[in-house]
Amino acid sequence: MIQLFSSILDSLRLLLTPLRDLILAVVPMEWIASLPAITLVVFSLIAVVVGLRFNPLGLSFIGVILATLEMLIFDPSVYGTSFGGLFVRGAFADFFIYIILMVAVLVLMSATIYGGSEGTYNFLLLMSFAGAIWVVMATDLVALFIAWELMSTPTYVLAALGKHKGAVDGAVKYFVMGLLSTMLMVFGISLVYGVTGETSLAQLASTVGTVYVAPLGEAAFPLTLAMILFVIAFGFKIGIFPGWMWVPDTYATADGSVVAYLAGATKKTGISALVRILMVGFILAKVGEGLPVWSMMIVVVSILTMIIGNVLALAQRDIMRMFAYSSIAMMGYLFIGVAAATQLGAAAAMFHAFTHALMKTGAFILIWAMSLKLAKSITYDDLAGLSKRAPAIAAMLSLLMLALAGMPLTAGFWSKLILFQSAVEVGMWWLAFIGLLNSVFSLGYYLRVLRYCYMVEPIDSSQLRLARVPLLAVIFCVVAVIALFILPGAVLDYAFEAAAALLGL
Amino acid sequence: MQLDFAVNFIDALGINPLFLLIVLPLVGAVLAAIVRGRGARIIALLVTGFELLYSIILALAMDPAAQVDANGGVFGWGFEMGRLGVGESAPVLQILLGVDGLSIVMAILSNLVVFIAALSSNHINKEQGSYYALFLLLETGLLGVFLSFDLISFFVFWELVLIPMFFIIGQWGEEGCEHAAVKFFIYTHLGSAAMLVGFFALFFLGGNTFNMVVLKGLSLAPLVQIGFALAVFMGAGVKLPVWPLHNWLPWAHVKAPTPGSVILAGILLKMGGYTFIRLGLWLVPAAMARLAIPFALLAIFTCIYAAFTALAQTDLKSMVAYTSINHMAWVLLGVAVAAGAIGSPEFAGVASFAIMGAVFMMFSHGTIISVMFIMAGQLKYAAGTREIPDVKGLMAGAPRMSMVLILASFAAFGLPGFSGFIAEALVLFGSVRIYIWASLIALGVFLTVGYLLWTLNRIVFSDPVEERPVTEAPWSDLIAPILMMLPVLLLGFWPDLILDYIEPIVNVILGVVP
User: Fold this and answer.
1) B128 to chain A: which residues are within 8 Å by CB?
2) Tens digits of per-residue pLDDT, A125-166?
3) How many CB atoms are closer than 10 A to CB B171?
């Protein structure tokens, strides 16, 4: 699979050599790796100006596509570092950047039905995309912090711009908890700096190796505290225990495109940041052989997150809220892979991040388009008899639900399978079993969607038609989910390569 | 039994036969979904009919004695979906199909049952397009389970079966079917979850491979084997079903539409039995040997328990559902006693009876119970109800239907001359020699004869009542059950048709060199 893609990539690079030479002539070498993010920043500023008179959405599309092209034509092994090595491209960062760019396109497609015509809306979205790209590229804690703020701040505003009357409430909750988590992050960084005198993750790793030797010295305790703080701070954005409370409120009230972005992309940046910190910075945080000290902590977080997500999702009537809780549960599964702390585990987590981005972005956009059409929040009753009112939409929604439930014919099957396998690899078969039980439990609400779509008679039997462009985004997600079932290798190979690069194998 | 014309036919098509078997229903499913209406029914009948013929031809073209190797054997077909790592040495996630004597017997059974079920779907008038599409998707899943020789491939198809079945039960079933569909899905998924953990454990402890043939060749530690066997018990035990994992079955069978019940009882339960043999006896014989006595006890208890429960049912369909549980316990008993005899050469002969009896039971039960379910469904049209006490004088009002019902009931309780008798006799011969107390299961036979005859007495041979008229079923409704009775009678007289295919693999399991 990799061979096929790399030969396509090579011919693309050959084709675009003039463009590359042009860029190389104009842009300083130092900036090349960060160029996709810089492009997005530039286009976000253009969007504000253009948005005063015209609809800037087309320009935003061009910006995102240009950023993707820049990703493709510059080989990270040659043009990998920028800003003095603060932001670095590599197999690991690229994997997540492509997720972000993919979600970005889908979100802009969904924004055609609401908000996309505003200059500010485009400005905030693009600025946040740029921040997200920098977050996954950051290899230094301070750089990470700045990029994190650049990504988060626009989303606080975006969440408040929703149509729902509770949007501001949801956004405030998101904002307050976001501030709290940022503070904890700064505290964690200062602890790390205080103990080691380093903020670069690579150098931190070697210091950690000298601190965690039996018997544990005093320096180990602040470092462990910093680790806990990082899990809480980044976990807030990912929506895992203990920082999950804002997720349902914000997801249920914010505008659907923003929710798709939050669930599809910003969650993934949190994962990449946390995985990078834990698996690069703190991988040696262990005494003797075995798993690092943070592994057990992640296990606890993962189990609690799965259970909270699944139990509360079962109790919801509102589909958006149900999806929000299901996202929480999904992140719980993902952290099983992180807890394993092996190449298989990291690759499984990354593959799950990719498939989750596809499944949830598609699902959120679909429900958002429906909710705009019907001018209300969608509950199960609105889905009744959907198979008669709109057969194609019902089929796509059901496929996405089956994907989330991890059934075959969808990529969700592989991502769950590999995650659970990674837990068994390090001897935590009980964790895999808990995950599987949760997965069975989650059928309770996924099957309910199927039941309403197909087995309940509709209240209103008129045909339901949704806007074209968002539907196109959903179709892309569904097709990709099925294609990745048949050939998971297309993404899995890259996930393994990225995991190997991350762990320095 | 390699017939030239069959070999030539397979060669002439030029496509890998197993690939064709799996993919043709998928193509048919897409076509049926596009065409809709009556056209979908015709496509489904053509595809399932061809599949049945083709699997029989494949059986005639293959050598039953040939065992599957790591690449799937003579007709093997593999498709690599991805790798768990970078490089050539990384373990693969793949679909790996192969065929041996046991697989082909089960494949023929599933094609037969699906064909008959499609034939008996003539009362389905709602959304035929998606109905037949799901039907064909189901056929792919079933065949995949029986032909897979890789644990991941096996699991993919195993789970795939759930999706179409869920919709068939839930969308075309009777009142209350949504609940039954959800229950069916969650119950079986729970069993598969436990089984999956077992697969992973075997993967890591058994040399990083999911390939069943390679895993079989390794000599694994006994504790690993036992853990795996227990995990398989959870997965297969729910499907079979074994007490106390059987609770989903009466719900799903009763609420499903008639063709759905036919498939559920006729072939879905056999997935459990097949798994016990393939992943239990065949893959980890040593573990099964240690678990033989508990499994045998469970089987006997399940058989008698289900027979008593069936006795108390008033709905004919639900009675037939419990008869299924009752009969599938024989399969587990055959497997368990044969496992108990592994390692003692003096019992090899009778042990091979037990396994062959188990497989034969699956085939014969698959055919007989399909007829019973179709007749139970027919009763609803003929008498307006399926409640046994409410139907009177079927013989007087509907002689054709009565004949089929009587024959099927006789076959079900194992009258000599029908295939059910051979199956029960083989299992019983095997069990009493190995565990004398296993003959207790004969109590189950006794009860089954009792309640089936009692039922016939009440609905068929009772005096007609004016207020409850019975109408005769049209021939078009009786084609499917009558066709299905043919293999029952044929195998009753010529059991070697199937036993010849199973014998080589039974010898492999028992370590007997023929």
Assistant:
1) none
2) 999 999 999 999 999 999 999 999 999 999 999 999 888 888
3) 22
Q: How many CA atoms lie within 13 A of A110 on its CB side?
A: 32
Average pLDDT, chain B: 85
Give the residue, A285 or A501, on which the prediction is more confident. Answer: A501
A345-349: average pLDDT:
91
Question: Cβ–Cβ of A455/B159 closer than 8 Å?
Answer: no
Mean pLDDT value across residues A79-93: 87
3-class SS string, A222-244: HHHHHHHHHHHHHHHHHCCCCCC
Chain centroid to CA B342: how far?
25
Question: What is the tens place of the pLDDT at every residue in A350-365?
Answer: 999 999 999 999 999 9
Interval A80-104 mean pLDDT: 89
Lowest mean pLDDT among B149-153, B228-232, B380-384, B498-502: B380-384
- Environment class of residue A120 by beta-carbon count within 10 Å: exposed (0-12), middle (13-18) or buried (19+)? middle
d(CA B226, CA A114): 58
List B80's β-bridge partners, or say none: B94
Query: Which residues, at least 6 apart from A28, have a Cβ–Cβ distance to it below 8 Å?
Result: none
- Cite the DSSP H helix spans in B341-441: 348-383, 394-397, 399-412, 419-434
A166-170's contacts with Cβ under 8 Å and 24+ in sequence apart are A166/A249, A166/A252, A166/A253, A167/A253, A167/A254, A167/A255, A169/A249, A169/A253, A170/A246, A170/A249, A170/A250, A170/A251, A170/A252, A170/A253, A170/A254
> How far apart, in whole angstroms, are the C-alpha atoms of residue B438 and residue B421?
17
Q: Write down how long chain B is.
A: 514
Each domain of chain A, given as residue ranges in start order, spans: 293-505
Q: Report the pLDDT value the prediction gives residue A479, as an integer from 0 to 100.
A: 94
Note whether A185 and A229 are within 8 A (CB).
yes
Contact A454 B200 (CB under 8 A): no
Cα separation, A400 vs A377, whole angstroms: 19
Please say whether the beta carbons of A413 and B157 come within 8 A. no
Hey, how many other C-beta atoms are within 10 angstroms of the C-beta on A183?
A: 12
Mean pLDDT of B489-501: 86
CB atoms B204 and A500 under 8 Å: no
CA dist B477 and A24 (Å) reads: 77
Which burial class, exposed, middle or buried, applies to B232 when counting CB atoms under 10 A from its CB (0-12, 13-18, 19+)?
buried
Task: Give per-residue pLDDT as tens, A466-480.
Answer: 888 999 999 999 999
If you ran DSSP here, which 8-state letter would residue A279 be given? I
pLDDT band at B379 (very low <50, low <70, confident <90, very high): confident
| Token code pair at residue A236 | 């807030």
Report which DSSP code applies to B206. T
Contact (Cβ atoms closer than 8 angstroms) between residue B98 and residue B73: yes
Chain B residue at shortest CA distance from A452: B178
Kindly report the CA angle at A472 between A469 and A476, in degrees rounded to 5?
150
* pLDDT for the residue numbered A105: 93
Residue B513 confidence (pLDDT): 61
Please report residues of A whose CB lies closer than 8 A to that of B181. Answer: 451, 455
Please state the rounded mean pLDDT for residues B249-258: 85
pLDDT number for residue A23: 87
Chain A residues close to B194, C-beta within 8 Å = 433, 436
pLDDT at B87 over 90: no
- Rounded mean pLDDT of chain A? 89
Distance, in Å, from the CA atom of A181 to the CA atom of A233, rounded to the nearest integer, reads 4
Could you identify the residue written with the tokens 């790399």? Answer: A6
Residues of chain B neighbouring A436 (CB-CB closer than 8 A): 193-194, 196-197
B131 Cβ contact list (under 8 Å, min separation 6):
B40, B121, B124, B168, B171, B172
Percentage of residues of chain B with pLDDT beyond 90: 6
Peptide bond into B241 cis (omega under 30): yes
